[in-house]
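2024-03-11 09:14:02 INFO worker-7 job=invfold-0412 stage=load source=structure_tokens
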């Protein structure tokens, strides 16, 4: 009987860890707080790591060229009165980051282009407070609307903040117990949550009402959720009654949440963090304290989730975060890049791991890199609050000219509540900036063509 191997572009994805000299923040003391948090966040410009600190919470921000051992005098971002529990970069402004803390507040920070250097940053652009009465453990930026931020606390309350006014515009109070995790859908009209009552909920964000719900994993330990809306799925990780780790896939297209599949993974007791890549439809699972990162591919037909392989290491992860796809290196077919926090006492550090697909051709691989989410919002905060929805604006990852610049600069919109610290640009200034960027690209292309013509002329003369 012949054996058939399931066709997949990603069957041979493999992970490669960076050499020690190309790791980050060696010698830093990573936060030892027991909350279920990844303790780090990354974007194409900066890496943020929550650190242990006395007398208040702090986190570290590093440029991508700040490799190796950390300078003991390197600046920190420290304005919280208690431990920082989560950080998240603004998807539409690579210099803006939000942080939340045990002190019940959320703060917005603007990072200089050249990083912090040896300067501590203690004055936030904006402090969001007055809604949460207990520690805030998760924050998420809206996926398509500018200046909209979600925060979840131990109250248990989910707050939706409008940064242009500095106020909470929606308060969601439909959970009877601790909220374990939250995730937005593609256009930011819905969120999915998991709760200590073992239920999975899909919630209309603006109304604060539950649209669908189902009983999730039966175990008492925390479970997490990710929206996979381009397939019509929710993906969850949790525990069975016998404390075995599980994953499950749920159908969101019907009136009620329907479980499509549930599989046991292993007997470990670490909560699995989920990263879903909508471009490749791949799921990456990493547990705090594990030394393995598992990756799967989601498909439309049964059994809906296929295990691909594991990335195995000798060191366990304290936390993990993933680079937005626009920051991955398409020249080496890098379909994902993970930053793994490793806690080794006084020698904590962060290790980048590159997940690549081997191909013989050096040309751009269109099947691996479809158009992906860019860094420009589809809606303003007011438009979203008025009830409008829009899918993310997409960009091409195809290299353009010398230097393979992936995206043009986008004009960032000012935040009303942040005052003069984020002034709005005029339409004329925006047009001039776009024109300058276009002229630079064209000049680079002309220079490259002239070099190729000169090389061809020299070869012709030699012949």
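2024-03-11 09:14:09 INFO worker-7 stage=emit residues=463
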């Amino acid at each position: 009987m012949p054996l058939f191997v399931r066709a997949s572009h990603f069957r041979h994805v493999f992970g490669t860890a960076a050499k020690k000299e190309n790791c980050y923040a060696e010698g830093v003391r990573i936060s030892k707080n027991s909350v279920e948090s990844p303790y780090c966040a990354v974007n194409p410009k900066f890496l943020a790591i929550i650190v242990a600190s006395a007398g208040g919470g702090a986190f570290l921000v590093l440029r991508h060229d700040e490799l190796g051992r950390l300078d003991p005098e390197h600046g920190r971002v420290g304005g919280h009165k208690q431990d920082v529990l989560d950080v998240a970069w603004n998807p539409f402004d690579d210099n803006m980051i939000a942080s939340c803390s045990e002190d019940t507040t959320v703060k917005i920070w603007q990072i200089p282009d050249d990083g912090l250097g040896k300067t501590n940053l203690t004055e936030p652009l904006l402090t969001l407070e007055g809604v949460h009465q207990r520690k805030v453990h998760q924050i998420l930026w809206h996926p398509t609307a500018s200046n909209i931020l979600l925060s979840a606390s131990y109250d248990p309350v989910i707050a939706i903040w409008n940064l242009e006014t500095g106020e909470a515009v929606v308060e969601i109070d439909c959970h009877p117990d601790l909220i374990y995790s939250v995730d937005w859908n593609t256009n930011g009209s819905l969120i999915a949550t998991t709760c200590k009552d073992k239920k999975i909920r899909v919630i209309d964000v603006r109304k604060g009402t539950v649209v669908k719900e189902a009983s999730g994993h039966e175990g008492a330990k925390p479970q997490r959720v990710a929206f996979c809306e381009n397939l019509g799925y929710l993906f969850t990780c949790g525990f069975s009654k016998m404390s075995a780790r599980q994953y499950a896939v749920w159908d969101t297209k019907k009136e009620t949440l329907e479980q499509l599949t549930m599989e046991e993974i292993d007997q470990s007791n670490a909560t699995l963090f989920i990263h879903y890549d909508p471009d490749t439809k791949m799921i990456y699972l990493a547990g705090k304290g594990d030394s393995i990162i598992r990756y799967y591919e989601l498909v439309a037909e049964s059994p809906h989730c296929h295990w691909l392989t594991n990335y195995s290491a000798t060191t366990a992860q304290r936390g993990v975060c993933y680079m937005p796809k626009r920051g991955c290196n398409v020249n080496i077919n890098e379909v994902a890049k993970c930053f793994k926090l490793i806690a080794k006492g006084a020698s904590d550090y962060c290790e980048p791991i590159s997940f690549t697909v081997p191909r013989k051709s050096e040309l751009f691989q269109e099947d691996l890199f479809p158009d992906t989410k860019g860094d420009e919002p589809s809606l303003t905060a007011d438009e979203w609050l008025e009830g409008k929805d829009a899918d993310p604006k997409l960009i091409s990852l195809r290299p353009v000219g010398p230097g393979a610049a992936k995206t043009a600069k986008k004009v960032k919109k000012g935040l009303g509540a942040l005052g003069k610290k984020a002034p709005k640009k005029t339409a004329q200034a925006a047009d001039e900036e776009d024109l300058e960027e276009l002229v630079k690209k064209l000049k680079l292309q002309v220079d490259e063509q002239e070099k190729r013509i000169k090389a061809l002329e020299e070869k012709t003369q030699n012949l």
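2024-03-11 09:14:09 INFO worker-7 stage=report msg="Helices lie at 381-385, 427-462."
2024-03-11 09:14:10 INFO worker-7 job finished
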